[in-house]
Amino acid sequence: xxxxxxxPIRTLMGPGPSDVSPRVLAxxxxxxxxxxxxxxxxxxxEIKQLLQYALKTKNELTLPISAPGSxxxxxxxxxxVSPGDTVIVCQNGVFGGRMKxxxxxxxxNPVMIQDSxxxxxxxxxxxxxxxxHPEASVLAFVHSETSTGARSxxxxxxQIAFEHGAFSIVDAVTTLGGIELDTDNWKADVVYSGSQxxxxxxxxxxxxxxxxxxxxxxxxxxxxxxxxxxDMQLIMSYWGxxxxxxxxxxxxxxxxxxxHESLLILKExxxxxxxxxxRTNHEALVAGLEAMGLEMAVDQDFRLPQLNSxxxxxxxxxxxxxNELLNDxxxxxxxxxxELAGKTWRIGLMGHSSTRRNVITCLAxxxxxxxxxxxxxxxxxxxxxxxxxxxx
Amino acid sequence: xxxxxxxPIRTLMGPGPSDVSPRVLAxxxxxxxxxxxxxxxxxxxEIKQLLQYALKTKNELTLPISAPGSxxxxxxxxxxVSPGDTVIVCQNGVFGGRMKxxxxxxxxNPVMIQDSxxxxxxxxxxxxxxxxHPEASVLAFVHSETSTGARSxxxxxxQIAFEHGAFSIVDAVTTLGGIELDTDNWKADVVYSGSQxxxxxxxxxxxxxxxxxxxxxxxxxxxxxxxxxxDMQLIMSYWGxxxxxxxxxxxxxxxxxxxHESLLILKExxxxxxxxxxRTNHEALVAGLEAMGLEMAVDQDFRLPQLNSxxxxxxxxxxxxxNELLNDxxxxxxxxxxELAGKTWRIGLMGHSSTRRNVITCLAxxxxxxxxxxxxxxxxxxxxxxxxxxxx
Lengths: 392, 392
Prior knowledge:
In chain A, 42% of the residues lie in helices and 15% in strands. Chain A has helices at 22-28, 38-54, 69-80, 94-105, 123-132, 154-163, 183-186, 212-219, 232-239, 253-269, 271-291, 318-329, 356-372, 381-390, and strands at 11-13, 61-65, 86-91, 109-114, 138-142, 144-145, 150-151, 167-171, 190-192, 206-210, 307-311, 331-335, 344-348. Chain A has a seven-stranded mixed β-sheet, with helices on both faces. A four-stranded mixed β-sheet of chain A has the order 1-12-13-11. Chain A has a two-stranded antiparallel sheet with strand order 6-7.
C-alpha cells in the first residue's frame, strides 16, 4: 500500500538542489490562491522587483519562467533565435552542449567554440569566431559551468558580442546569488538562472531577464517562436505592466511563494555579503580538501566558490563513497558529469548550503568514509585547515 | 520594504487552481532532497503507478511533465507531430485554439473543426474531416473544455481516430479525477492533464501518458522534436525503468511531493466515489442556481460537473460581483473566457473544492451579492433547493 512520503533530512552539497531554507519551505506550504487574484498579481510585481535586484538589472522584462532551468535556457533561445540565424556557442562543459541542441532545434546554425572541460571560455576564440562569422547574431555561453565548476569571464564575452552587434545569452543558473552577476553593466541581453542553486529555493523555476533591445527583437519577430509555452510575446501579457493580466498559463503559485521568500532572504543578507560568505566557505573547503591531499579540478583563478570540483583520488571508489555519505551521513555530494563522470566529485556550497557547519561536516564525513577505504590521511587535519580559514 | 507573503485563505471555485488539501500543502513544505536521490527515484515510481491508476492505463510512458498544463499540451504535440503532418483539431472553446497554435508551431498543418462554444465536439464532423483528409495522422480534441464547461464524447472521438489509423491527443486537464477518463479502453494515444484541477494539487505539473504505439512513433522519429525541454526521448531516460536515471532536467522535487499526496488522496477515495461526489455537488449547485433563476450555459447532457458555466443575468455587473465575492467572502469564481467573457461565470467544483459546504457557501454568497444589486430572488430558496439534492 502506497503511503504519504516523508523525506529524510539531507544535507545537500551537490550541484543543486541546495538546502532549502525553512522559511522557503514554510512559504511553499501556505494556502494556494488564484493565479489571477489581485493579491497574487501584487506578489508577482514584488518577485519581479526582487529579481531585478538579484540580477542587477533595470530590465522591464524580468520574470521567472514556470519551469526548471532547462526551460529557462530554451526560453532564451526559442525567443531570441530565429530559423537561419547563426549563433556562436561556447562549450566548456555539459551545458554548452545543451545550448547547441537548443540552437539546432530553433532551425539555426550553431558555430561551436570548444574549450577544455574545467577551463573558462577563451575570449580570443570568440573574437575569432565573430571574424569568421560576421553574420552571427547571437553569442551564447555558460557563466558558471555546473558540470565542471569553472567560471568564465562574462563581462568580456558580453562586451565582444556587443561590439560585434550581436546579442548575448548568458547561462547564470549556478551564478545567481553566489557570485557577481552584473546584467546591465555587462550589457548582457538574456540572462537566465534556476531557483534551486544559490537562491536555495525549491527546483522548478527559472528566473530570466531580457535587455530592452532583446525585448524589441522579440516583439519584432516575423516568425513565431517554436514554443507556445515559452513564447515571451504571450508571457509578457501575463507578467506585464498594470493590474490587468491576460491568462497565458496557470502560474505555479506555491513555488512562486517559495521564490519570493528566497529572494527576500537574499535581499536581507545583501548580494555582497552573500558573495563574501560563499567565498569564505569555499576557501575553507578547499583548504580542508587540500589538507587531505585531494586536488582541485579547476585552476584557482576561475574556480566557482559555490561548486567545487575535486579529483577522486586513486584507490577511492566513487559510487561507494557517495553512497556511504548519503546513507550514513545523509550528505549528498555530486558525481562528475559528462567527460568528468567517475573522475571528479562536485561539492556544492550554494546559498543556504554554504555554511561553516556544512564545510566541517563534509570534510569530517569524507575523511571517515575515505579512511575506511584505506586512504592515507591525518585525522582532523582537514577540519583544522578549514577552521584556520573560517576563523581568520 | 518587501515582506514575507502570507496569502489569505480563499475558497477556490474558479476554473482552477482548486482548493488544495492541507495534506498536499503539508507535503509541499517537507525538506527537499536531490532529484537523483534513490529515495526520490522510488517516489517517482510511486507517482507513475498512481498516475496509471488515475488515468486508467497500463502505459509505461506515464509521468508528470515538470511544468503546467500548457506545457503538457505542448509535450503532446511537440513529440507526436512532425513537420508536414496533417492534424485534425476540434475547437469548441479556448483550448482547441491553443491546440491549433501548437500544431502550427510544429510546422504541421491543422485542419480545424468548429463547434459552438458550450457544445461538445460533433463526431460526424470529425469523420467527415478524416474522409476529406485521409492523410491526417493525428486527431486532437479537448475532453473537458475549461473555457465553457462542456464535455465531449472522448470514447467515440478516439475510436474514429483509431479506425482511420490516426493517433488521438486528448486534453484532459479538467477531466482527471472529476469524471470518467478511461485511457486504455478509449484507445487514447496521448492524454495530458493538470495538477491544479480535480487533483487539487498546486499548479505547475501536467501528468501525461503515451500509448505504446505513440511511444514507438516518438522513438522512431527521424526529425528531432522542436523542444529540448519537452523531448520525451530525453525525458524517458530520467523517468524510465530501473534504478539508474539519467539527468535531463532538475525535477520540481517539492511539487512532486504534493502531486504524490494528491494522487494518494484520490486513490484512497477511489475514482468512482470521487466521480459520484463531483456529480452530486454539481447537481446541488445547479438546483440552487436555477432556484435563483439563473440559466446554465451548457445543456444538461454534456455539462461538466466540475466546471459549471452559468449565464450572468441581466442587470448584474460581472466584475463587481466577482470582486465582492472575493473581497467580502474570500470566494473566487471564474470569469467567462474568450467568446464568453462577460457573459458567463465559471463555478468550479473540482477535487477538494467539490464539497457540500462550498456549494452552500457559494449559493449564499451569490444570493447576498446579487440581492445588493437589486436582483429579484427569494432569500434562502437556492440553499433549500441545493439541500434537497444533497440530502436526498
